[in-house]
Specification:
The chain is α/β, with parallel strands linked by helices. It has six helices and five strands, in the order βαβααβαβααβ. It has a single domain, classed as NAD(P)-binding Rossmann-like Domain (Rossmann fold, 3-Layer(aba) Sandwich). Strands 3-2-1-4-5 form a five-stranded parallel β-sheet, with helices on both faces. Strand 1, helix 1 and strand 2 form a beta-alpha-beta unit. The termini are far apart.
Amino acid sequence: MEHQNIFDLNGKIAIITGGLGQIGSEFVKEYLSRGARVAVFSRNVDDEKKRKSFPADMLDSISLRFFSVDITSKESILPALDEIEGSWGIPHVLINNAGLDTQPSAPPAVSGPFEDFPEDIFREVVDVNLVGTFLMTQAVGARMAREGRGSIINIGSIYGMVSPMQHIYAY
């Protein structure tokens, strides 16, 4: 009996939101190393961010593509999905990894007392972390359902349960 590598992702297509971030870029690297084709969705895709996140040989890979996508907008999500489907096919995996929080270097109005936290910044965090996850799951999940297969992985944070310890992060 032939041994099957259960971690082999050859021929699989993955979308990773927030794929240029600290955690997301590690998901991208791992999926690429296992043979997947990876589409990175990020609000801001630029060459400097890509060079900081990935070695040159990965950036040259035909299995890695970057899309400037605002996951809080269906009008931004759907054209990118159409492009992926047209060139690679229906995704097998969606990793909802994009997320916002406030940096320790944020101005006092943001990093100060909870009572003074700006509503507009709170709404942006909710839009990206919740609405974006909802819209991506809805859009990609519908295509996966048509194919009768797919995996959706929602990345959460310990900070859903406890207060952030911002001093442990390098910004």
